[in-house]
Amino acid sequence: MKLQQVKVLKEQVDVAQQKEAVLKVRVQPWIDEAFYINADIKGKLVQMKVMHALRQGFSLESEHSVERVE
After folding, report:
1. What is the model's pTM?
2. C-alpha dist (Å) from residue 30 to 21, 22, 26, 27
3. CB neighbours (10 Å) of residue 53?
4. Helix/strand/coil for 3
């Protein structure tokens, strides 16, 4: 009886592992795109912060500088 249970459990594990592999293949492109979009947004935020700092007249070397950049 135990041998039969072990065999059934192994088959269930094999099926579950196969499903997991299929899901990983299908989901990975979405994960990659999400990382790309996230990196793009972070890059744009950095650009916006730099532009804001320049428009406010702050030196980029120091956040507390009040010197005008012209």
Report:
1. 0.51
2. 15, 14, 8, 5
3. 15
4. helix
